[in-house]
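quick one before i forget lol
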Amino acid sequence: MYKLAALTTAQRETVERMTRAMMKRILSEPWSFVRENEDTSDIAAALSSLVDMFHLDPASLDSTSTDESPIEEAAG
């Protein structure tokens, strides 16, 4: 990821746009799942569904993380 620091501003912006487009495509199905099930009033059930959908380990989740994006990190 440190190789991104050598990119020009325009190149970094292009990488960011491409990354956003890839993530949008990857997350399309999960977001559809969430939208289809948005009428649920039980937050715990919704969160459980997301954990199951992404095969997450609830014990490893940290809601206080402030990590920078890889692009911000590389730009330093």
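fyi Residues 68-76 have pLDDT under 50 and may be disordered.
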